[in-house]
Amino acid sequence: xxxxxxxxxxxxxxxxxxxxxxxxxxxxxxxxxxxxxxxxxxxxxxxxxxxxxxxxxxxxxxxxxxxxxxxxxxxxxxxxxxxxxxxxxxxxxxxxxxxxxxxxxxxxxxxxxxxxxxxxxxxxxxxxxxxxxxxxxxxxxxxxxxxxxxxxxxxxxxxxxxxxxxxxxxxxxxxxxxxxxxxxxxxxxxxxxxxxxxxxxxxxxxxxxxxxxxxxxxxxxxxxxxxxxxxxxxxxxxxxxxxxxxxxxxxxxxxxxxxxxxxxxxxxxxxxxxxxxxxxxxxxxxxxxxxxxxxxxxxxxxxxxxxxxxxxxxxxxxxxxxxxxxxxxxxxxxxxxxxxxxxxxxxxxxxxxxxxxxxxxxxxxxxxxxxxxxxxxxxxxxxxxxxxxxxxxxxxxxxxxxxxxxxxxxxxxxxxxxxxxxxxxxxxxxxxxxxxxxxxxxxxxxxxxxxxxxxxxxxxxxxxxxxxxxxxxxxxxxxxxxxxxxxxxxxxxxxxxxxxxxxxxxxxxxxxxxxxxxxxxxxxxxxxxxxxxxxxxxxxxxxxxxxxxxxxxxxxxxxxxxxxxxx
Length: 567
Known about the structure:
Layout: E1 6-7, E2 19-26, E3 29-36, H1 44-47, E4 60-70, H2 98-107, H3 118-125, E5 130-135, E6 148-149, H4 159-177, E7 193-194, E8 196-201, E9 212-215, E10 221-222, E11 225-227, E12 229-232, H5 248-257, H6 296-302, E13 308-310, E14 315-320, H7 322-327, E15 334-337, E16 346-352, E17 371-377, E18 393-395, E19 426-428, E20 451-458, E21 462-469, E22 479-480, E23 497-503, E24 506-512, E25 517-522, E26 527-534, E27 540-547, E28 550-557
Parallel strand pairs: 4-5, 4-6, 4-8, 7-11, 8-12, 13-15
Antiparallel strand pairs: 1-22, 2-3, 9-12, 10-11, 14-21, 15-16, 16-17, 17-18, 19-20, 20-21, 23-24, 24-25, 25-26, 27-28
């Protein structure tokens, strides 16, 4: 359990570069010491200006190595069935086999046989910043594939131990079959590790492997490159379905895990409309399928965009669709808002444009209309995600029944004009007594944030809205003084007592026990441990003061038995 230090604090729209001086006892003497504090970056919510997405963000090229395996006991003749079945088409440029067709689902570009490939999807959602090419080392010259034949039945490769054996055996058999394979095309960043390793187990009955991602621990190698991040996505082929039930959207979901993005669905989620669905169709880590855009915060976490922060002040804004924002640095797709009620949790207002249901390459094909979506982000849960029921990200929607239910219909989350199939024109309430059941924009503990949003205009590519904030000064808030990620440095410090002093926007804490004392500084958004100012002696007493950017600690050391004046 993480404890938060809570205290009254003042907030000023000004931040200065400062140094901190404190008094330290050195060999029986009281001496002055100085500790410099680095430059503090002026946050965006002071100036109110919008930071543009950097068009010069680096383009990352990556390899996704795809391998297909079969298990002992599988008597299927894959030489003429499954992926090796002949693909029959009179259209020029048609694939020769279903294996070639399968490859096009990954690498196709404007392909007449598969529109909206894995490669195209990641190019589009990253604004061209992530360019992935899938590599198929088992491909033969005639367009067929040679399956890796595992030594044991499928049950031997389940669980953590079995999966480690499977990774090692696949790597060994690939090396044996392709001893001169060029490892450079598997490792485009040249770090000695295959960029991503995607295993497609061919199974005779479904649900042998739940689709998942993990890491091979860099213990197995193929073509001189170690296997790190990997995905397992089973497939069952048949005469009627030569490429089986393989879903390219599930592959995209698992691939995004390799960026460190957690699941946005709950383990208790069953089907659309059943509740327990905090994000749903609005991100591939929620409910994959129909090519959803990742949320702006997902793309920010990967490094594909920046979500700009704006102050908690009444204002009007215009947001544009993500593709337009990628192409024009003057256009913004999403904005981030904090309020004085939390130093870590925040809200994002993001514009989403519904795609064409009949166009397989169209993004957000599953969205029923255009408009704003509003969601809460709790950074303290960024590693856990939503899987266990404590939501890292929650998209507000009409009809929810409690702060933890994730009920209602998340597909109807969009806020906009009825002419664009939005379900409502406003969301939120300035009445601090309103709850999530009243369509309020709430924190994870159920408190109303006091934010209200009203859409005033809408076009085919943009939304204009007003945002209002409650009068927080009337609440006499005690704010949680944490870093923006919801943490504080106190969990690593042992102290029997703490003393606090304020200097303008800065708070200094003297954390002490009988033998040592540490001084910490909070600058309005983050903590910095300034170091230990007393140690090694028993019976010390301390006082702290701060003035004009400088902190002072007076230490009285009674360990010699003579005492000292605390003045």
